[in-house]
Amino acid sequence: DPAAAAGWFRRAAEQGDHAAAYMLAVVLLDGRGVARDAAEAIRWLNSAAEQGDPRAQYRLGMLLEQGQDLPRDATSAAGWYLRAAEQGDARAQYDLALMFEAGDGVEHDEAEAARWLRAAAEQGDALAQYNLGVKYATGHGVEHDDVEAHFWLSLAAASDQSAVIDASRRGVEALAERLPPPDLAKSELRLRERLAEQPS
């Protein structure tokens, strides 16, 4: 029962439970079991984010970046993304990388963008893997390295995210044509090892 769940979340949130504050904010933003109340949701989201909840920090950053239910504030969005990213939230790492790449709310910094893309890519984010592969292929923010580009694009192509599979495969094919056979073998071995580590 969504209404009962909202009541439980509220009671726990009022006692200082940051996870419950985050869940209450989500319920209030979505209007599940309660009337949608963006202002109250933002208060609970702020509470959870200030208590260090990375999900709340990410969601608050997203609302600020998009100007959804709050005035758009890219600088504050980047700050919340950074706090969540430092706690290992892959979505925040990816979105923060995009902000560094675009210079939106932060100084334009290709190296910082690559650093955060790598953090998200290491956690299995296929879009981050694709974008990191492109960075290695073009040398933007990282030293040009076709072996690394091939590895990250291959990993993205092996994902289940259809948005990146085709573009990744095209990049892999182009790199495979220009990589020397020993370098191609090195990338493919690393790919097989990484894929073997992933849960089925």
Helix proportion range: over 70%
User: How many individual β-strands?
Assistant: 0
In terms of DSSP E residues, the strand content is under 5%
What coarse outline follows from CA principal-axis ratios? Answer: elongated
Helix/sheet category:
mainly alpha
End-to-end C-alpha gap: 33 Å
Element string (H = helix, E = strand): HHHHHHHHHHH
Whole-number mean pLDDT = 92
Radius of gyration: 20 Å
Task: Explain the overall architecture.
It is a single chain. The chain is mainly α and 200 residues long. The chain is 75% helix and 0% strand. It is built from 11 helices and no strands. α1 packs across α2, α2 runs antiparallel to α3 and α5 packs across α6. 44% of the residues are buried.
What brief labels describe this structure?
200 residues; mainly alpha; 75% helix
Outline of this structure?
The protein is mainly alpha-helical and 200 residues long. Helices cover 75% and strands 0% of the residues.
Strand-helix topology:
Elements: H1 2-14, H2 18-30, H3 38-50, H4 54-66, H5 74-86, H6 90-102, H7 110-122, H8 126-138, H9 146-157, H10 162-178, H11 181-197
